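Dear support,

I submitted the protein below through the web form. The confirmation email said the job was done, but the results page showed an empty box. After a refresh the structure appeared. I'm attaching both so you can tell me whether what I see now is the final result or a partial one.
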Amino acid sequence: MIPVPSNTRVWLATGVTDMRRGFNTLAAQAEQVLAEDPYSGHMFVFRDP
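What the results page shows now:
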């Protein structure tokens, strides 16, 4: 199990995400769509069909 600090937010992308995009594109998506810093220490969860 990965320990997660109690003040960590978990952002869940509810739409379908193409996981072939790679980390850089997913980070850009978190930054543009959610207006959040992908390097903030929070967790961003994406769904692949």
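Response: this is the final, complete result; the empty box was a page-load delay. The helical segments are 23-33.
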